[in-house]
Design a protein that fits this description.
The structure holds two protein chains of two kinds. The longest helix of chain A is centred in the N-terminal third of the chain and has 31 residues, at 2-32. Chain A has a domain at 2-114 and 131-214. Chain A has helices at 2-32, 39-55, 60-83, 91-113, 137-159, 161-171, 173-178, 183-209, 217-230, 235-263, 273-287. Chain A starts with a helix and ends in a 14-residue tail after the last helix. In chain A, α2 (39-55) packs across α8 (183-209) and α9 (217-230) crosses α10 (235-263). Chain A is mostly helical. By secondary structure, chain B is of the alpha/beta class. In chain B, the strands form two sheets. In chain B, strands 6-7-8-3-9-10 form a six-stranded mixed β-sheet, with helices on both faces. The chains are: A mainly alpha, B alpha/beta.
């Protein structure tokens, strides 16, 4: 039982990370209809920025805030410089640009910081934090920080004029222009926010998976699965999807290990976690294409 | 007195296709002007051209300043409110959010609150539905929302594209009554595009008739109304 609860708790911690990256994907998807395949690598790059600041002597939280802000600026710049000229380009060209961005982030990070695994510190106190036997200090910290970030974003989008303008621009860009919203800037802001949220996820997960240029590859797949489970056009759904996928993969690993104990045969376990995520993607796409919380878009023709 | 909006030699293009050839007209401050014409004459395109939503050539002057070629959102910020055909509702936002988004460019909180009260006095029905998702409103309510939203911009000029489209006659009458009140009480000038020519000529004080992207006739509504060709082509008697 204790092991089960531990697995669930660590599933929530992983889920929090997936939720952040999934939210970043959804933020860009709702306003542009594109999945940013480079989201994970951008987050990885941000994590390196924070690591660099820490090796220069910055305190963890200073480096954290600075890296998140830098990522925001980088996100805005990428949209304005790289994607702006492609606004009317066909989808495939944009996909190629995303893959290019992915490769560039990856190889630039590798060139600057090398491909060797690096240890990444945890900012949370080893004692007095976490619940012994249930959830470790870093895992609890990850859940708390991501929940804070998600709440802040929710408040921003729900209650501020700028958040409202961004939602309006995503929902109906032409009409948003007709009420004076500078839609192009809203897109760039969305990119900035997505990059910042991704940075939070990267910096939080680096202590668990270690820092290296390929650290976000698997996580992006999980996040994609989360976004699809929740409904790719629904930010709240993507967050819920993140937690669902996180818990589900640990549940599968746990049940697998129990099965192995009782039957002595290894059927499914830790090694198959990623497979499970991909099965979820395919399953959702076949059975409920709009996701658990997504709305089916009906177009009048 | 110079006109509020002066359009001269306006051409508009969709890709290679030219939709407007040399359209010109003036809108007097405080008046209601209507554009009449058959389907495809270029009425909607004219409104879109004023807001730079299509590629244009020629001249559009608002309050004496050239605005042709300025980005749509910058034209709107000069206090020109465009209510597009199909009403342009933000369907996933609430009624209140649909109204607040139009005040996004304004910083006078007290003025915004006062204007919200004012539009609710014009459209009490919207007040009852203030927290409802705008996509769930009826067609008439969405048209009211579109006009209310335009008012939140504190416009000097309103461009209305077929406000009567798809609505029951009673609702249309109500909406046209409110448009007249907005024109008189809020001093908002209007450019009205309407299929229902009789209705439009009753409301407007000036009319222009478009045919295949050109102005073929213009004058005070009372004169245009009695023109034989207009009667035969657009009024049906």
């Amino acid at each position: 039982m204790e092991q089960f609860l531990q697995q669930m708790a660590s599933g929530l911690a992983n889920g929090a990370i997936y939720a952040c990256v999934a939210l970043a994907l959804v933020m860009i998807f709702v306003s542009t209809d594109h999945i940013n395949f480079a989201q994970g690598e951008m987050a990885m790059f941000s994590t390196y920025l924070s690591w660099q600041l820490m090796t220069w002597g910055a305190n963890f939280w200073v480096a954290f805030v600075a890296a998140v802000l830098l990522s925001f600026v980088l996100g805005v710049v990428i949209e304005r410089v790289v994607l702006r000229p492609l606004h009317t380009a066909p989808v495939l060209s944009i996909v190629v640009v995303f893959i290019g961005l992915l490769a560039i982030c990856n190889s630039v990070a590798g060139a600057i910081w090398s491909y060797l695994l690096k240890e990444f510190p945890s900012p949370f106190p080893k004692t007095d934090f976490g619940i012994p036997g249930l959830i470790g200090p870093h895992q609890l910290g990850v859940v708390v920080i991501t929940l804070l970030v998600l709440t802040a974003l929710f408040v921003f989008f729900r209650y501020t004029p700028l958040g409202l303008a961004m939602r309006a621009a995503a929902q109906n860009p032409q009409m948003a222009r007709l009420v004076g919203v500078r839609v192009d800037w809203m897109l760039a802001l969305g990119w900035g926010l997505a990059a910042a949220v991704g940075a939070v996820a990267g910096i939080m997960v680096a202590h668990i998976v270690y820092l290296d240029p390929n650290m976000m590859g698997g996580i992006l797949l999980y996040a994609f699965a989360s976004a699809l489970v929740g409904g790719i056009s629904n930010p709240g759904g993507a967050v819920a999807g993140g937690f669902i996928v996180g818990v589900l993969e640990n549940l599968v690993a746990y049940l697998g290990s129990q099965l192995e104990k009782t039957t002595g045969v290894y059927i499914i376990g830790n090694g198959e976690k990623l497979t499970v995520a991909l099965i979820i993607v395919i399953f959702v796409l076949t059975v409920k294409p709009a996701g658990l919380f997504g709305r089916v878009v009906v177009k009048r023709v | 007195m110079a006109a509020l909006l002066e359009v001269k030699g306006l051409k508009a293009f969709y890709g290679q296709t030219q939709a407007l050839h040399d359209v010109g007209f003036d809108i007097e401050a405080g008046g209601i002007t209507t554009l009449l014409g058959a389907n495809g004459a270029g009425k909607t395109t004219t409104l879109r051209a004023i807001c730079n939503m299509v590629r244009t050539e020629g001249s559009v002057r608002f309050d004496g300043a050239e605005i042709r070629g300025r980005a749509t959102e910058e034209v709107v910020r000069l206090s020109i409110a465009h209510i597009p055909e199909g009403r342009g509702t933000f369907t996933t936002l609430t009624v209140e959010e649909n109204l607040r988004i139009a005040a996004y460019t304004r910083r006078d909180r007290a003025g915004i609150a006062a204007d919200l009260d004012r539009v609710f006095s014009y459209f009490p029905r919207l007040k009852e539905r203030v927290q409802q998702q705008a996509g769930t409103l009826s067609g008439g309510e969405q048209q009211m929302l579109a006009i209310a939203r335009a008012l939140m911009l504190k416009p000097r000029l309103m461009l209305l594209d077929e406000p009567s489209f798809g609505l029951a006659p009673l609702i249309v009458q109500e909406i046209f009554r409110i448009m007249r009140r907005i024109n008189q009480e809020d001093k908002v000038s209007m450019l009205l595009v309407e299929q229902n020519a009789a209705l439009a000529l009753d409301l407007a004080d000036h009319a222009y008739v478009l045919e295949t992207g050109r102005v073929v006739m213009s004058g005070p509504s009372s004169v245009v109304k009695n023109d034989e060709n207009v009667r035969k082509s657009y009024l049906g008697y």
